[in-house]
Amino acid sequence: MDTFTLLCKAVCSLPEKFHGLTDIEKRYRQRYVDLIVNEESRQTFRNRSRIVSLIRRYLDDHGFLEFETPILQPIYGGANARPFTSYHNFLDQNLFLRIAPELYLKRLVVGGFEKVFEIARNFRNEAVDADHNPEFSMVEIYWAYRDFKDMMALTEDIISSIVFEVHGKYEIPYGDTTLDFKAPWKKLSMTDSVWEVAGIDIFTHSVEDLKKLAQQHQIEDWEKPRTQREFLVAFFEGLVEEKLIQPTFIYDYPVENSPLAKRHRTKEGFTERFELFISGMEVGNGFSELNDPVDQKARFEDQDEKRRLGDVEAQMIDYDFINAIGYGMPPTGGVGIGIDRLVMLLTNNNSIKEVILFPSMKKIQAEEDGDGKDPGANQERK
Question: For residues 161 and 334, what is the distance between their CA atoms, to the nearest angstrom?
Fold first, then answer.
């Protein structure tokens, strides 16, 4: 005679088998049900786990050391973003959820670790859309005695090798197109990209002419730029980014929007910075790291002034970091790669919510009211 032992209580009914769980919002809010009934979702997160493991293995095999840096920080920095603010009762001070681990990892380079990385959870108080979530994952890598060109090559090798490991080939489907990750990837300066895509040679136009052009092209916040280089960024973001489908490195960014990058060795007013774009999304951001404490202090002061004037994404002055590189940081290359967006590309998903197990969602009315219903009562709730 067969016997049965009750291992757990299941008081909620699963979706009926024929239709399954197809309500997108419910899939995100109740990921546990999504994983039970949708094999495709389970496979996405198996692939995510594997991709993270492959990143770690690649860096470990190439001599990089993995470290953990503070998530609660007294001064936020490492990127231009609005932070989440908290308060520590015992220390009687405000703390911020980190927007990036960059400034702490570079302190480790100062301390003598020449090849470091962190697979980091970061937090930015920003809008939620198809490729943004306020809590997200990235890997940041720093390599002493290398520059932005070396980091472009490293980024290309990491991603292309992972694509091949996961898919067994370099060409993979994404939406209605096919992405080709076989090296070498296309490289363009920001100036050349605006010319190639939009037919605009920024530095042959006056600021007044650029204002008229920006208005004609319906560039967002067209009235804000004050210099040709600021207009260069505005035209790039407004006209070029979304058209960069195949893996493309854009390099030589203006100094005004690159407060942590080293000034370009040959181009006045520019920095040795690059970003990687795939399918219209920024996937990586790197540069030759600024290691001049005097220049860094001046850049921070410029950011702090913008912050005081109302720019909620401008960086604070981190005097301890300035002090750290004052002890001597060797020439260093760095790059950050967005893990969530990379997983989107490698699993053919067009929303970041599909690759984050528990994405940020708006409250629903019953949660706001605290209705206290039983566990099964919200199965059909939206």
Answer: 19
